[in-house]
Amino acid sequence: MNLQQTLFIVGIGILQLICVFELIRRHMLRERYALLWICITVVFFTSPFLFDVYVAAGRFVGIMAPTSIFLLLAILGFMLLNIQASLATSLAYAHLKTLTQQLALLENRVRVLEQRGTVSNNKTEL
Amino acid sequence: MRVLVIIPAYREEKTIAAVICAVKAQHYEVLVIDDCSPDRTGEIARQNGAIVLRLVANLQYGGALQAGYLYARDNNYGAVVQLDADGQHDPACIPDLLAPILSGEADVSMGSRFLGGQNYPMPMARKLGQWLFGGIAQWQTGLKITDPTTGFQALSRKVINASCTNLFSEDFPDADMIITLHRMGFRIKEVPVRMYASKGASMHSGIIRPLYYIYKMTLAMLVARFRTVAKEFL
After folding, report:
1. Per-residue CA distances from B142 to A39, A46, B115, B139 (Å)
2. Which candidate from B171, B215, B223 shows the least CB-CB separation from A21?
3. How confident is the model over B134-185, as pLDDT tens digits?
4. What is the pLDDT of residue A88?
């Protein structure tokens, strides 16, 4: 890679790192979900300097063109991010379902207790 | 001042009874936060006289602990002591831990297993982690922290209120919280306590969890330096 390409890619990596850091700082992104983004940033930073290593690894699995190798890395990276997001969403749904059910049951118990309290008060008045 | 001892617990049916009895022997109120344990942890805790908050979903250590803080805040407790359910923390040290809080000397009293000359057995990897996190905490706060990952702590009412916000970590609220609380203006003091090696599987056992812990704690401690902190809780 030439200097222009190197600076551009490293610049994108720095911007991404700043974005991730800022999101964590503002409590908008948890550290556990930032791990993959940080790994992707590491790939960004290292790609200009380890270009030949990535190309050799790609050729080892039968991918000849360097652009295809990096496209595959990008696809794999986003695939992992999507899997992580899907898992988090599934877990969040399970929690939401449990909370909703428990809330409904608690509301019912409160209603029953309130009714019992009303009946007791009426009996006392009589 | 009313003091509440909070014990977050997950799958600790074998040890929870002994811990509760040891705490109640010192006449403290005990709250166990059952973090959706699949075993009888909550039931056994209730049988042994603890107040039990049963979480309907597993929120992990930080979430369970925060549930305890919310309970303490809503029920007007003046101070909270937190300890582990696995018998690692010696409840006999609770008065020593509380002393700086009750005297007004500190807002956070951290129990250190390394002060006082106790020889606590620890794997090399964990020792390195302690050294790393203690070093970062010292660099960020200027305080000498010998046990940055201790879960044996006493907190004042003001710290409880501050910890009931979203700045509290959901998974491992350890050394990063020291930095955050220090930046918020709270006074932190370390006190020597006795700790025993965990009898069961700790949250740091295995390979993946310790590696994740190192990553998460390092990142959280670095970010904590730059977070906007509110001083309204002082």
Report:
1. 31, 35, 18, 6
2. B223
3. 888 888 888 888 888 888 999 999 999 999 987 787 777 788 888 999 999 9
4. 92
Neighbouring C-beta atoms of residue A52, cutoff 10 Å:
9
Of B56, B170, B227, the CB nearest to A30: B170
3-state secondary structure of B83: coil
Pairing status of strand B29-34 against strand B79-82: unpaired
Q: Give pLDDT tens digits for B26-66.
A: 999 999 999 999 999 999 999 999 999 999 999 889 999 99
- Burial class of residue A61, CB neighbours in 10 A (0-12, 13-18, 19+): exposed
How many Å apart are CA B152 and CA B166, to the nearest integer?
21
- pLDDT, averaged across chain A: 88
Tokens representing A115?
A: 């009714």
d(CA A79, nearest CA chain B) in Å: 21
Is the ipTM, as predicted for this complex, more than 0.90?
A: no
Q: Which A residues 53-82 touch B at CB under 8 Å?
A: none
- Give the residue among B68, B148, B76, B142 at the shortest CA–CA distance from B114: B148
What does the pLDDT read at residue A80?
93
- Side-chain half-sphere of B19: how many Cα atoms within 13 Å? 31
Cα–Cα distance, B36 to B55 (Å, whole number) = 5
Mention every residue, 6+ apart, whose C-beta is less than 8 A from residue B6: B30, B31, B32, B33, B65, B68, B69, B71, B72, B80, B81, B82
Rounded average pLDDT over A21-27: 91
Q: Is the dihedral of CA B101, B53, B21, B200 positive or negative?
A: negative
pLDDT mean across residues, chain B: 88
Please give the model's pTM, rounded to 2 decimal places: 0.84
Taking contacts as CB-CB distances below 8 angstroms, the residues of chain B near A27 are: 166-167
Nearest to B167 by CA among B181, B154, B157, B153: B181
Tokens, residue A125: 């008045």
Q: Does B211 touch chain A (CB under 8 A)?
A: no
Residue found by looking up tokens 């200097």 in the block: A3
pLDDT tens column, B8-29: 999 999 999 999 999 999 999 9
